[in-house]
Amino acid sequence: MSKRFSGVVALDDVSFSLRAGETHALVGENGAGKSTLIKVLTGVYRPDAGELRLADEPVRFSRPSEAQQAGISTIYQEVNLVPLMSVARNIFLGREPRNRLGLIDFSRMHRETAALLGGFGVRADPRRPLHTLGIGTQQMVALARAVSVNAQVVIMDEPTSSLEPREVETLFRVIGDLRGRGIAVLYVSHRMDELYRICDRVTVLRDGRHIHTGDLAGLDRMQLVSMMLGRDLAEVRRAGVTNFAAEGHEAARTPVLTATGLTSRLQLHDISLSLYAGEVLGLGGLLGSGRSETAKALSGALPLDSGELTVDGTELKRLTPAAAIRAGISLLPEDRKAEGIVPGLSVRENIVLAALPRLSRGGVVSRARQDRIVEIFMKRLRIKASSPEQKVGELSGGNQQKVLLARWLCLEPKVLLLDEPTRGIDVGAKAEVQSLIDDLAREGLAVLLISSDIEELIEGADRIVVLRGGAVAGELAGDEVAEDRLLEVLADHAPAPEDNATAAQEDPR
Question: Where is the ABC transporter domain (predicted)?
Fold first, then answer.
């Protein structure tokens, strides 16, 4: 397969095979060609050259629906369903069961949806609009849809990025069932533990070219990373697990941001924390612990019932996103597709989006000033694009993340809130982002780092505030910033403050 976009080679004579009943890992850095290959296999793109064979028969797909009808089903990293439709309508979209009058048989559709979701351990009302469910549950609905269409091939693109551990185990059980039925699974993930646990073979792409295909069991992890990056194995071994510096950061003596008693009904309960210039404060906790909600509260995106927020000693009386940005607080959201990038706009337009008020004079925005800022940050963050005018939606996930970082860094913020900044990006882009976080802290920026990757949190943060049930469960500093201590706090099942309050109301004593 070969595919070009505006003169840029996305796939360069790539050959790939998938066997019935196997789980095959597809790995490579962002921009290696993984997404392009998947879109060629599923009819989103037509290849410029090459042949696609399914069950040893040549096929050509003009659109995704044709690939699905042929037996190729895809689960994307970002949930690719219709948010305003019900769970049942999403699962049966385009193949709704009909009654004798030719009308949609809703009772049957709801019944079959409930049974299907039950097999995945999901208890959700089939009539409920999809957007009212959590991201993890939406991902399980997408999985249920994919396996319910009698597929021969199921492609999974970062399927666990939004799932909690229990849901991940359910996913792996489903993959085992698919393999037992002779269904081929193409599994794309940057999480090495997952790949070595469930995959039989691996294919490595780099810069749009095929580098290696072989059994995963006989391949050392560092060798795999070395092939993905195109670097010497010894260099990869020296770099270690993350790209954070071994030494800590020098924090200021007075906090640049102080949050006191942040409370939002059913989401946050009396959250208090301080953030100092020149430090990286980690925010840890399991899925649903309130990490993202805390970041959104600090940035004015989550309405609060009570609490105070001060920046450089000045209290923000009316906390809105605009007020937070003016005060020097910037948020890189967890879901870059839904809450970050504007895919139809160019790289340039996405970078300068938040800075337009600063770049305008008399309501006229200076294009020269825009170009100057874009050039600086594209070089500093090493954003790979054919030009600043390329649509950001065409970039790899890692480069989209860098564009978002550039958007906020060009505002010269005092506080940078990073919610899962390395989620869903390859090891090379991840190392670059981690190194950048280190550099920003050394330059005096106050950084809040939210990460589900324990190693990233331990090695990147100077202090860690641990959340549980929307409340602060503990704080780790100094020598306490260690994996065993963090796991101990996470696993502590002591009731959160709101649970104690409820118990006190119900107990007549």
Answer: 1-232, 252-494
